[in-house]
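Table S2 (text version). Query chain:
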Amino acid sequence: MSSITMKRILVTGAFGQIGSELTMALRRKYGNDNVVAVGHKTKPSEALLKSGPSGFVDVTKRDNVEESVKKHDIDTIYHMAAILSATGEKNPQLAWDVNMNGLYNILEIAREQKMVRVFWPSSIAAFGPETPRENTPQETILRPRTVYGVAKVAGELLCDYYFRRFELDVRGVRYPGIISSETPPGGGTTDYAVAIFYEAIKHKKYTCFVREDTVLPMMYMPDCIKATMDLMEADLSKLKHHADYNLSAMSFSAGELAAEIKRHIPEFTCEYKPDFRQAIADSWPRSIDDSASRKEWGWRPTYNLSMMTKDMLEKLSKRYSEGRL
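Corresponding structure-token output:
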């Protein structure tokens, strides 16, 4: 399976936070016309629309997905469509439908079409209060307390089943919180780590919805995209895991992030008013052991907290000065 080259790629959830930047990176590597971007509700950027084929697809409707797959002769799917943790708790029935039934549809289509490869992201949301919170192991207790997390655990098992039962080459990582300079937050528990930058530049102040001492694993988007593409291009014979690789880059508290921003914007202030998302954050790890990813497919992050903060502020400040933020 690993010797076959990906030629025609479909990205679901391509208008979301990770999907939109992943689509552009894939187009740069594989050619604009070979990467089809599909989403459901979010309005795509002009750059994404103009750079290659796109469309609207509801992943809960199998015929809808299948139509795009056949129309574009797809052999590889990056399945990024999902309802995230905080939004999912407001409508758990919809979250299950999109996150679980959507994945099942993708796997079934990929199996029937004998696809080269499927990528599906799991998350640190797969962990729960009983999981060791420091240096969380690759193999550990998975008892999440959100419907998003429950779907991620079920998804990991389902992907592993499809690999073993049908020899479908499906791969994935457990994403930490992802911080992006290009797309706004999308309803996740780690959204504060993105929103704080926008508010720091616009208003020089931010009200954070988790405590100052809340520590979570985070990753800057360029590392996220690199990890996703590196895993998909790795030699299958070296992979002992499939859709559940721990992935890490840095861990920091909300207070440490605010202090780092303050180094660049001295007048910046942050206050802390925890809401329902605090309980979700408290059930997740503080740091991750990603040694399996490092050993099996050579994962190495580039950005730490100070590098990421500097780059985020530079990019967002430029857009703000141009009236595009």
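Notes on Table S2: The longest strand covers residues 215-220. The first helix runs from residue 17 to 30.
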